[in-house]
Design brief:
- This protein is of the alpha/beta class.
- The protein has a single domain, classed as Metal-dependent hydrolases (TIM Barrel).
- The chain is built from ten helices and eight strands.
- An eight-stranded parallel sheet has the order 1-2-3-4-5-6-7-8.
- Helix 4 runs parallel beside helix 5 (102-119) and helix 9 (218-229) crosses helix 10.
- The protein is globular.
Length: 259
């Protein structure tokens, strides 16, 4: 399995990273992408990718961080050349926590989209109460590829994102009893566009809901996704792994050892 979105590069998981990686491998999560949100997390993700062959990195400025940190495009451009950096993310727009800085969020998002296109990397997009705003932006970049991370809003936009070529990330929310919208998304996303993720340390799947999430729990989301689509866990693992490698073209998991 591949956890396509984890924040093991942040303090709550970084402090126990050796054991977290060991537990992931023990539970057949053989590769993971440490997703950045700001300069510190980006740097930590790259350092982890250099230490552990099973870890790759994504770099970007999260919409919730745009008030606290200035976008450094030149730094991101240099980091994007690293052989283990496979995406620009987590980027996007978040109108749940703040709406008064929408103009700044949009400006930073567009600059990072343009960076991703310049370095030929996919994007990892965060959306919260903002899917329509994001669609109105990304539709203007037909060559852009990426994933709608932990997508859980506006099922009527699902086909539009897919028609643009985007993948859909499914996280632990799909295991929650009240996750009707995410269940619909999991049911209706074409199999060749599904990815699995944890978003660790957040959104731990059942039976760990409410606890700190980690890559080892990817299997619970994968199992639920397989159940929803009427497939075996092995079949869903193969499908989502193939999708991951197709999107994140810099990943070279066939030749990598785990530890």
């Amino acid at each position: 399995m591949i956890d396509t979105h984890t924040h093991i590069n942040t303090e709550s998981l970084l402090n126990d990273i050796d054991n977290i990686v060991k537990r992931a491998v023990k539970n057949n999560v053989l590769h993971m992408i440490a997703v950045g949100m700001n300069k510190e997390a980006n740097e930590q993700g790259i350092l982890l990718s250099e230490k552990y062959p099973c870890i790759y990195a994504a770099i970007g400025l999260h919409p919730s961080d745009v008030n606290d940190e200035q976008l450094d495009v030149e730094l991101l451009l240099q980091q994007a050349k690293h052989n283990k950096v496979v995406a620009i993310g987590e980027i996007g727009i978040d109108l749940y926590w703040a709406k008064d800085n929408f103009k700044l969020q949009k400006e930073v998002f567009i600059k990072q989209i343009e960076l991703a296109l310049a370095v030929d990397l996919p994007v990892i997009i965060h959306s919260r109460n903002s899917a329509r705003e994001i669609y109105d932006i990304v539709k203007n970049y037909p060559s852009l590829r990426g994933v709608m991370h932990c997508y859980s809003e506006h099922t009527e936009l699902l086909d539009k994102f897919i028609n643009l070529g985007f993948y859909i990330g499914i996280g632990g929310i799909v295991t929650f009893k009240n996750s009707k919208e995410v269940l619909e998304i999991a049911k209706n996303t074409p199999l060749d566009r599904l990815l699995v993720e944890t978003d660790a340390p957040y959104l731990a799947p059942v039976p760990f809901r409410g606890k700190i999430n980690e890559p080892a729990y990817t299997a619970y989301t994968l199992s639920k996704l397989a159940e929803i689509r009427g497939l075996t866990t092995r079949e869903m693992d193969r499908i989502t792994t193939e999708n991951t490698v197709r999107l994140f073209t810099k990943m070279n998991i066939q030749k990598q050892t785990v530890l």
